[in-house]
Structure formats: structure tokens, C-alpha cells
Amino acid sequence: MEGIILIKTIRNADVVVIGGGSAGCTIAGRLAAAGRQVLLIEAGPDYGSRTSPDWPADLLNARTLPTSHDWGYTGPGSAGQPLALDRCRVIGGCSSHNGTTQNVGWAGDYDQWAAQGCPGWDAASLAPLFESALDRYWARHYLPDEIQPFHQAVLGAASAQGLPLVSDFHLLAGGAGAGCAPINSSLEGVRLNAAFAYLDPVRDSGHLQMLCDTLVERISFKDGIAQAVHIIHQGVEQRIPAKLIVLCAGAYGSPEILLRSGIGPKEHLADLQIPVTLDLPGVGHNLHDQPTANLEYEGTQALAEALTAFEADRVLMEEQTIIKLRSPYAGSAPYDLHVFPWIERDPSLEQGWRCVFPVGLLRPKSRGHLQLTSSDANVAATIDTGFFADSDDIPPILFGIQWTQELIRSPAMAAFIGAPLAIPPQQQTERIEWVRNNHRHYWHPVGTCRMGPSSDPYAVVEYTGKVHGLEGLHVADASVFPEVPRGTTALPSAVVGERIARFLLNGVC
């Protein structure tokens, strides 16, 4: 009986949005606000609006990063070491578990997207959409007395090394410097996710239906036109008719669903005995993320005492500062590295605090791929991020490590930094091996369904998000990024939702 009620309800939807993350919430919210009947399907739970008491405390706590709702993706690092590839399975997606720092990246990266055959994606066109997304997220700048002692020391040390102190992370023309990016968390340290920003205004509008805790198996087609979404809801397989489908399942989830739907490299689909809907070689390729080398140290007694005093009457955020650093390999760009230090509690250490200094390469040349091992939606794809497959990615990371070690040794940091816990050796060859064996990532996977013109054999979608060669199916999330912008990806993902929602509403498809 439940299945009959479900299908009867869903038949009224004009648009089915698959995935309730940063981009999916944006698309669903914008289309519903414009009067479209929208069904949003999310694999994780929905805990309600911003005022609901049902939200788990860890997902609201912006002080640290929760892992309670992780998808469980893993993949190999450069030396084959296992890496946890965190993705959040809940309404709001990764905006419900990230560090809440929002920055737009550099204008030149988006101008390059446009120059490569994606009109409307240049910086000038996107600037008002970034402003709109920042406004929706209630993004704000830290007040001076909110910056805790460790990060005050970081800013002092960066300034002493000649970097300007900046507050331009929300500006596409921003340059190198150190500062605190805008945040989408409240004065009380509450994380304000994409669902609060975009879905809450339309939850009671009558234009939005939500189907959560629901796994999408595949999309079916007839004569190249999308017909239905096939789901598993409460253990029951069901078919939902759809007029227009917007796939927003992220850099891992979107290519998985396309491949299970028979859209992808025909040789790979044949290996899995999946009938070919459309041979699109680019699905699952062009995967990249921003690799990091993390330097780690014990916190001192002076740090512990300073943090305790600060926390007595203020919210203690673990991560606040970002350094936009230019290496000699940045070309014409103003910066190509992020150093984004944080502190974390560690009861195994004498003073209870660990200090972490990640050096992140923002524009890696290396590329990986994603492939299915089964047509079963419950079996995760194999993911190879391809970190450091291109050796040109090593020199800027080494430059960033050396610069960061000088920052750590500066007088401004001396009182807070204790014994090293994870640092590279001094010899260059050994440093390279250390990076390959110990690197992590910035949690910013992109590119697996990249935008580009039909003349590009590896482009999956055109500039409107419409899948090449098919009707009724769009993709709108970080998977469509041709290249990762030099910044965090949560805000650009919301802007993808803003941009493609406008294309849909204006009939530019």
C-alpha cells in the first residue's frame, strides 16, 4: 500500500532532483520557489528545518568535523595507502559536515571554464550568483574577538613572513594573503547547511516533496528521453515516472548513477553486463581532488591554557585561518596553495591538543577515475583519485611545506608548537617519498561528469548541465566542474545549482 501512495504522490512532480547536497538543495529550492512541482530524492535522512529538535548535535556543531553520516567511500593514495574519502549522507550533503569556511576561488579559473566552451560560466556572470549563495548561507565574517589564540598566532606569523592580512575570500579578484574566510555558522557555533538555506523557505510552499532514506538505482530511458527514476525505498524497488531529472549526487554519486543507467564508456558497461544507453567515455573520468601534505605537532601547555581561557566565554573553533600562498609554479595566477591549519583534541597527548598544518595544492594536474564493480546500487564504486600521477604536482607542495615549516618556527608560533608528530625528512628525495606515502586530501572531489562542448569526446554535459545525446536529464553538482577552482568547493557547488536552476527556469536547455 505504501508503494502505491508513494507513486501516486510523485506523479505530480515536474522535476525530480536526485541528491540533497549543496547543489541539489539549491536546485530544488530555486525551482520550487519559482512554482515548479519538485520531488527531491535523498539517500540519507531528513531531520527537518533549522528549528527542528531532531538534528543530531554533531551535524549542527561547526566547531569540528563530524563523520557520523559518512558514505564510507575509500580509495588509494599515491603510494597505495588507503584514504577515507569522506562524503556526507544526509539532507544538506557535505554542507552538513564541512568546516563552514566559504571562499569563491579565483576569477581566472571560471573564465577558463567559459573559454573552453561553457558560456555563462565566466567570473563576471557568476559573481552575482556567488553573492546570492553567500546571502542564502547567512555567510558572515568572524568578529575580531571570535578568532581564537592559535589562529591569532597563525595570522601574526604569516604577516611576519611578508603576507598581507586579507578578508577577500568572497571576492573573485582576491589575491595571496592570510585571513579568515566567511563562514556559514552562527555566533553560537551552529552549522547552517544548504538544506536550511534553500529548502526551509519552500518546505511548506506546496511545491516541494521530499523522499529521503531512498537509494537511486538507475534512470531509465525511451528513445533517448529520460522516463523514470528507479529507487529502493524501505527495501522496496519502485519506479518513479519523471518529466525532467536533475542529477545532483556529487562527484562520486552522479557518475555511479549514470553508469548504472547505461551511460558511460561502453567497454566498462559491457564488462558489467549493463545495457548501453549511451556511450559517453567521459563518465567517471577527469576525477581530481586537491592533495594535501599535513604537518602535525603537539600543542604546548601554553596553548592548552590559552584555549581553555578562550573557551570559558566564547565558541572555540578548531579551524579558522586560511593562507593563500603563491608558489613559483603558479604561472599567472595570484596563488596556487592553501595552508589551512587547525587544532584538534587528542587525549593521547600530554596537553590534549594536536596542531595540524595542511598544505593543499589547489590546481592539481593529476587525474584519476571512478569505475563500478557491480550494477548493484549498494556496492560502492572503486575510486582512484590519481594523486601525484603527474609529477608536476610535487614541486609546489614541497615549496608549501618549506614555507609552512618557516611559519611554524616563527616567534609568533613558538609558544604554542611542541614536538613534531608528522613532518617530512630534510633530504629532497626522501621528502618526495614522504609526500607520496603520507598525503591526504582537501575533501574536494570534482570533474567526473565534466562540462564541455559536444566536440569534446570526454565532455559529459553541455554548459546548461544537459547530458550530451539525451533529453530530460541534467547534471548539476561538483562533478560538472571541468577543473577544480582554487578554493573550497561547497560554495561553487551551490553556484552550480544557482546557475543551472536559472538555465532551466529561463528555458536555456
From TrEMBL:
Q: Which InterPro entries match?
A: FAD/NAD-bd_sf, GMC_OxRdtase, GMC_OxRdtase_N, GMC_OxRtase_C
Where FAD is bound, by residue? 90, 216, 443-444
- Name what cofactor the protein needs: FAD
Q: Which residues bind substrate?
A: 442
Gene3D superfamilies recorded = 3.30.410.40, FAD/NAD(P)-binding domain (3.50.50.60)
Which keywords annotate this record? FAD, Flavoprotein, Oxidoreductase
**Glucose-methanol-choline oxidoreductase N-terminal domain location:** 250-264
Q: Which GO terms describe its molecular function?
A: flavin adenine dinucleotide binding; oxidoreductase activity, acting on CH-OH group of donors
Q: What does the similarity note say?
A: Belongs to the GMC oxidoreductase family.
Task: Indicate what this protein is called per its UniProt record.
Answer: GMC family oxidoreductase
Organism of origin: Pseudomonas kielensis
